[in-house]
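tool=predict chain=A
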Amino acid sequence: MNFKLEVIGFNIESCTLAQAAGASRIELCDNPGEGGTTPSYGFIKAAREKLQIYLYPIIRPRGGDFLYTDEEFEIMKTDVMTCKELGCDGVVIGMLNADGTVDTERCRQLVALAYPLGVTFHRAFDRVNNASLALEDIIEMGCERILTSGLHPTALEGAGTIADLIKQADERIIIMPGSGVRSDNIMELAKKTGAVEFHTSARINIKSKMNFTNEAMKESLQSVTLDEEEIKDILSSLDQL
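tool=predict ok
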């Protein structure tokens, strides 16, 4: 089976480590504490210059829900154009209406604007009111992939729903499990869902390398990076299937 692994790149170090470990694609994000927001122009540019694997920045102007104002939508359109200009391979989007349906009208505009770049619909999908209908809407609007945890906090918890979505999709779109995907559960997840693409952050926190810290601030200035060995272990497990 030709499995593919997408890895979140929260900084340039994570991107290069993921590529070296054998990842197929990077979902480029800022702000891990908010679940990922649109990276800066400089970050996208640097990632494109250093990466030979596929690069998909997320188009998400803020954390929180996926119900956006007209002003935020204009920002998203500009960010899609920026990704095209910088030579990205695709973008990651997701917009919902207040009633939990997919905002097909505006998502369709982003897909058209991104063309010929690929488009992944992100985990806004896990907040929809009807996964089966949402799947059909996303296929119709032209996305190539849906990132989902099966409407549960982790992909393993939502494995049954993911398997149902893959069956319904019938190869019309890729269903990619994400959230809590690690080397110790990837084989179980693959067997339960039948998925061929997977998404992981493989994140670890690292301490600051500062020699001086102001103790009066009472803070721990950790940052997020990627566990390269974890990526290798996930891919090694997939190779055994």
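The mean pLDDT is 97. The domain at 4-239 is CATH 3.20.20.380 (TIM Barrel).
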